[in-house]
Specification:
The complex is a heterodimer of chains A (566) and B (163). Chain A has 566 residues and is of the alpha/beta class. Chain A is 38% helix and 16% strand. The two termini of chain B are 27 Å apart. The chains are: A alpha/beta (566), B alpha+beta (163). The interface between A and B is medium-sized, with 17 and 21 residues.
Chain lengths: 566, 163
């Protein structure tokens, strides 16, 4: 049967099991939108900005593990997706973004709403496609989903000219993908894994350093078994939070710039660092030359380019994290005696770490006069459901969430780690809520980032997505202000947001509800009311204005040069 | 260190800009790059001359391999490959200099492909070092214009290299 391109596209999405798309109509995608009537199983959510649409698809993907799908029209619709795509690219999130394009005959003519989105997104997509012929369309969609979700996942863009959407072709969805230039390594090399087991069992001061790849690679269970079998301590990056339960005694929490004292001391003093799905970002390593100076490094990653990119590695293992860890577990479990003696050998190391934990726990000065943001985060953890999904924006509130929320399950923290995109939190929460209508989804935002995508409250209300939005309001762009306080002599250039916005009225204007807590005594009640309200809610917390995120490793310093208290 | 990398790519539009963008985006150097279709018209082959230490070269080859449209990458570092480049050189040639230019052309087994009373245009092929050498000799005589193709490289021996 011959079908038009627009219809073929939607048939392909159906074949891929897509149940939700986030999209914004426009001149060059109008044919797709017209065909949408014939696809009742595909839920279309209309954000109020294409950037938010892509962030929502990203939040959907992070929370569910499925490929997120977004649609935008050509020109400004397409350029608006770029921040969302770059955000997903930096954090390796599987997305398929479909943009309309002017008809092929007009490409290159500076036509109305024409932009070279293929050129623009080349450096921030895993791959992108311009569809020039309707006969190629089904094959390209198949490839796009395959590329997006396999290997190191990432966003893939399909640019679909309007005439290709109109043209007809025989529709047949390919069963298999054969890309001769793309064969991701799935299985870790057994010899390397043997070596890794030997290095691990010989270590006296091991640390497992876990990144987002462990969550993307669905390896949290294997990681936990490995750590608990060996009694090996685990620290996670921001992206790795949730991969290992933070209530475990083996958890060191977050490492890096705003990591715990004990995680950073453990990494600095360890004799073996096992990096699992992590990429040694500068926010994690601090000064490279002083990073894990006494350690041999094992690096497990599905992406060979992550290995030896910025640190020396003694033993690289390329492969899917869950495959490598389960192979490693098998090898280790076959050596019961060695495991026993390993556990004995690491006892002094665990005791040393406990000493660091006791000396400098993660702490802040409590107050009965002003609301401390850390206390709000702790209260949110206490009152939220165990499987609640948290999305954050970027800045101080993000780091307080990372430090104090105590994540215990994978895919419960959605945060823009690599790109650091303000405005991410609210739309990402929206996407996660669309994926899991029954779960509790909480967006934790600063007053700055919230205002970058606040229009999405309309989308929440319209689509009955009961996201709970918590605004940590200090009337500052707090993280930059903190740097200005510490490094620029308190010159708060352009970081003061001195307009007293009434967030309750704002919520009401959209048909949502709002609550505000101005004193510590009002925090719990505000959260309880917010959680109990049926629809989307804004909870504003007027927090201590100049509270800082601590500890802090100044940019470029080594991990043991932490500023612990103000 | 100078490296010559051969890259087999899908013969699709945009591949060149993906490769060029990779080099510029990550701050890798390109000394020269040449590209044309192979005997299999679905594939093109690039020869890229770059430089960097071992760690950078490892990153370059890994990143090239990571591009979806790239089928195969070979880093020719050792004596396993033959490298050739062509140059077209326009040189001033009047009076006695004309004979001198022709002598140099002869020594390098180059060819005169165009001539006027005041100039010769010379075609020369060889290893990049040979091109450098003829240029050193022609330059004092008055080099007016130079165009080089950049290196192309192929492995030694009977074995062919395909996707």
């Amino acid at each position: 049967m011959k079908l038009a391109g627009a219809r073929i596209l939607l048939e392909c999405l159906k074949q891929e099991g897509v149940d939700t798309v986030f999209g914004y109509p426009g001149g060059t995608v109008i044919n797709i939108y017209d065909e949408l009537y014939s696809f009742p199983d595909i839920r279309h959510i209309l954000p109020r900005h294409e950037q938010a649409g892509v962030h929502a698809a990203d939040g959907y993907a992070r929370a569910s593990g499925k490929v997120g799908v977004a649609i935008a029209t050509s020109g400004p619709g397409a350029t608006n997706t770029v921040t969302g795509i770059a955000t997903a690219y930096m954090d390796s999130i599987p997305l398929v973004v479909i943009t309309g394009q002017v008809p092929t005959a007009l490409i290159g003519n500076d036509a109305f709403q024409e932009v070279d989105i293929i050129g623009i997104t080349r450096p921030c997509t895993k791959h992108n496609f311009l569809v020039k012929n309707v006969r190629e369309l089904a094959g390209i969609v198949k490839k796009a989903f395959y590329i997006a979700r396999t290997g190191r996942p990432g966003p893939v863009l399909i640019d679909l000219p309007k005439d290709v959407q109109v043209a007809v072709a025989e529709f047949r969805y390919p069963e298999k993908v054969d890309l001769r230039g793309y064969k991701p390594t799935i299985e870790g090399h057994p010899k390397q894994i043997e070596k890794a087991a030997a290095m691990l069992l010989a270590a006296k001061k091991p640390v497992i350093y876990v990144g987002g790849g462990t969550i993307l690679g669905n390896a949290a269970a294997e990681l936990r078994e490995l750590a608990e079998t060996l009694h090996a301590p685990v620290t996670t990056t921001l992206m790795g939070l949730g991969a290992f339960p933070e209530d475990s005694p083996l958890s060191l929490g977050l490492l890096g710039m705003h990591g715990t004292y004990y995680a950073n001391m453990a990494v600095t003093n360890c004799d073996l660092l096992v990096a699992v799905g992590a990429r040694f970002d500068d926010r994690v390593t601090g000064k490279i030359a002083a990073f894990a100076p006494h350690a041999k490094i094992i690096h497990v990653d599905v992406d060979p380019t992550s290995i030896k990119k910025n640190v020396r590695v003694d033993l690289p293992i390329v492969g899917m994290v869950n495959d490598v860890l389960s192979q490693l577990l098998k090898v280790i479990e076959d050596r019961g005696d060695a495991v026993e003696s390993f556990r004995t050998a690491v006892k002094p190391w665990l005791a040393e770490i406990d000493g660091w934990k006791a000396r400098h726990p993660l702490t802040f000065v409590e107050s009965s006069k002003v609301i401390k943001p850390q206390a709000v985060i702790r209260k949110l953890r206490e009152l939220s459901r165990p499987d609640a999904i948290i999305a954050t924006d970027v800045g101080q509130h993000q780091m307080w969430t990372a430090q104090y929320f105590s994540f215990t399950r994978p895919r419960t923290l959605l945060s823009s780690g690599g790109l650091g995109t303000m405005g991410y939190g609210l739309p990402a929460a929206m996407g996660a809520q669309a994926a899991f209508p029954e779960r509790q989804v909480i967006a934790i935002c600063g007053d700055g980032g919230f205002q970058m995508n606040l229009q999405e409250i309309a989308t929440l209300v319209q689509n009955r997505l009961p996201v709970k939005i918590c605004i940590m309001n200090n009337n500052y762009l707090g993280m930059v202000r903190q740097w200005q306080e510490l490094f620029f002599g308190k010159r708060y250039s352009q970081t003061v947001l001195d307009l007293p916005i009434d967030f309750v009225k704002l919520a009401e204007a959209f048909g949502a509800v709002g609550f505000v807590a101005a004193k510590p005594s009002e925090v719990e009640e505000t959260i309880r009311k917010g959680f109990a309200a049926p629809g989307p809610v804004i909870m504003e917390f007027k927090i201590a204005r100049e509270e800082k995120v601590l500890p802090m490793v100044p940019a470029g310093a080594s991990l043991d040069e932490m500023v612990l208290a103000s | 260190m100078r490296h010559t990398i051969a890259v087999l790519v899908e013969n699709e539009f945009g591949v060149l800009s993906r490769v060029a963008g990779l080099f510029s985006g990550r701050g890798f150097n390109i000394d020269s790059l040449s590209v044309a279709p192979t005997n299999d018209e679905d594939m093109s082959r690039m020869t890229i001359v770059t430089r960097g230490d071992e760690q950078i070269l490892e990153q370059i080859t890994k990143h090239l391999n990571k591009l979806i449209d790239i089928i195969k990458v070979i880093d020719f570092t050792d004596e396993t490959a033959i490298e050739r480049e062509m140059a077209l050189i326009k040189v001033t040639a009047e009076d006695a200099a004309r004979a001198e230019v022709l002598r140099i052309v002869d020594i390098f087994r180059a060819k005169v492909i165009d001539t006027t009373p005041k100039s010769f245009t010379v075609e020369v092929t060889g290893a990049p070092s040979k091109i450098d050498a003829i240029l050193d000799l022609l330059r004092p005589l008055g080099l007016k214009e130079l165009v080089r193709t950049g290196s192309v490289a192929i492995g030694r021996g009977a074995k062919g290299w395909k996707g």
